[in-house]
């Protein structure tokens, strides 16, 4: 029996496809820059079916690339070996919210927006938020340990995952759940799969932590002429009780959003800082006090009611719509010490001008964690020229004391640069863990190690 026939036997004929057009559409990166090759798409409907698919592929000697919402920005879901594409899109169940224990069990294929709606209906909040909330799946977010817009308050995905089911490469299912908040019995296996980018197993279900919904919020956008002044303000706000969001926005970014989607910055300045405070009491005076000596270019734009707050958030979230207006941007997701951000911003601009003079460097991100997203818009380089710029930017990040990946993962795009952020001993230990779970290396073979 062929592998395709065996997969159809496991999941049903309607959930297996070898259609070239389908495979072509599923083999391109979200950025549009990277493309691979696949032999078959399979869409299992349960953890046991995922495990059976893995078992069949392992026996057949076939490579498997796991796909969720396919929002990876580092080619993390691009197959390189005529792989079997294993999609988690049918694992969409969202369980009943446990409002007492403040948690919910969801399938790995559920989107972030679906989880957020379930939490809100119960008067609670899920701690991670991304601009790609309508398409990003929580399984993929856990696999890359995604952060996002609320990380400064609630942390990354790893801090939200309190239990999970994982289909292992040997075709068994690990079910790690607990009814208690504190469970220190043996290895913390759940954390091993968070951030592993699908190289150790396929997450099929997650228990997610939820939080009380703050009764008061205040949002502001402040303009700064100087990036160092903005960073100094960021240091103050990131340590404040009640900080809910702290986002850096490059004025070049808001100029693009103003031109192409009609959403411009409400303040002047080369750099903008979006701040949100949340709590059980009015936060407006605390915000005003903290901004008193912040070195702003003018008065901040402040939103107290929900409509005004949403309008201010549009400045940040509209970026997703304009980044590809001149074609796929060249993206860098980096983590830097706050003291190095200004130097990096200057160096990155100079590198972009040197390698691609027409490029517009756009910088934004989560300043509280030093997690920034550099997008080179109108960057038409490809092949060796793109590789030269990418490598030079990675070297600049490493020289600045940063990590080559923060919340997007390594994927296939950054695997050649892992040694810039991890020692030989680190990499050897990670390879040993990979070998223990997946000795033949058939699961997500292009990701992380290649």
TrEMBL record:
* Matches recorded under PROSITE patterns: FAD_PCMH
Q: Which UniProt keywords apply?
A: FAD, Flavoprotein, Oxidoreductase
Q: Which cofactor does it need?
A: FAD
Q: Where is the signal peptide?
A: none
Q: Output the superkingdom of the source species.
A: Bacteria
| Residue ranges constituting the FAD-binding PCMH-type domain according to the UniProt record | 34-213
Tell me any Pfam family this protein matches: FAD_binding_4
* Family classification: Belongs to the FAD-binding oxidoreductase/transferase type 4 family.
Name of this protein:
FAD-binding oxidoreductase
Q: Which organism is it from?
A: Mycobacterium deserti
């Amino acid at each position: 029996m062929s592998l395709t026939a065996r997969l159809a036997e496991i999941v049903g004929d309607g959930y297996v496809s070898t259609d070239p057009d389908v495979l072509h559409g599923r083999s391109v990166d979200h950025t549009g820059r990277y493309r691979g090759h696949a032999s078959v798409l399979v869409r299992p409907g349960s953890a046991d079916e995922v495990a059976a698919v893995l078992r069949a592929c392992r026996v057949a000697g076939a490579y498997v690339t796991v796909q969720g919402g396919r929002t990876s920005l580092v080619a993390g879901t691009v197959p390189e070996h005529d792989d079997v594409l294993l999609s988690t899109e049918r694992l969409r169940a969202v369980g009943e919210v446990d409002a007492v224990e403040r948690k919910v069990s969801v399938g790995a294929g559920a989107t972030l927006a679906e989880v957020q709606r379930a939490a809100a209906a119960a008067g609670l909040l899920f701690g991670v938020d991304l601009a790609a909330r309508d398409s990003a799946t929580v399984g993929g977010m856990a696999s890359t340990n995604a952060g996002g817009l609320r990380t400064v308050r609630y942390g990354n995905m790893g801090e939200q995952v309190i239990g999970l089911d994982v289909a292992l490469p040997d075709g068994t299912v690990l079910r790690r759940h607990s009814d208690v908040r504190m469970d220190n019995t043996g290895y913390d296996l759940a954390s091993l799969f968070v951030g592993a980018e699908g190289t150790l197993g396929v997450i099929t279900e997650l228990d997610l932590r939820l939080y009380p919904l703050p009764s008061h919020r205040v949002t502001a956008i402040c303009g700064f002429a100087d990036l160092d002044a903005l960073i100094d303000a960021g240091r103050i706000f990131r340590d404040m009780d009640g900080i809910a969001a702290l986002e850096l926005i490059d004025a070049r970014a808001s100029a693009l959003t103003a031109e192409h989607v009609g959403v411009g910055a409400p303040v002047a300045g080369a750099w903008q800082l979006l701040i949100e405070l949340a709590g059980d009491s009015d936060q407006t005076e605390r915000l005003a006090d903290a901004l008193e000596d912040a070195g702003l270019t003018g008065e901040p734009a402040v939103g107290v009611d929900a409509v005004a707050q949403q309008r201010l958030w549009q400045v940040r979230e509209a970026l997703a719509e304009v980044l590809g207006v001149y074609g796929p941007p060249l993206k860098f997701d980096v983590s830097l010490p706050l003291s190095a951000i200004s130097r990096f911003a200057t160096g990155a601009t100079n590198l972009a001008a040197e390698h691609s003079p027409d490029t517009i460097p756009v910088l934004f991100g989560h300043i509280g964690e030093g997690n920034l997203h550099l997008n080179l818009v109108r960057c038409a380089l490809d092949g060796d020229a793109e590789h030269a710029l990418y490598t030079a930017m990675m070297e600049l990040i490493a020289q600045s004391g940063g990590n080559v990946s923060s919340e997007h993962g390594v994927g296939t795009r950054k695997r050649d640069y892992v040694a810039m952020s991890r020692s030989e001993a680190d990499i050897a230990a990670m390879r040993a863990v990979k070998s223990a779970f997946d000795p033949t290396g058939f699961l997500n073979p292009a990701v992380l190690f290649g």
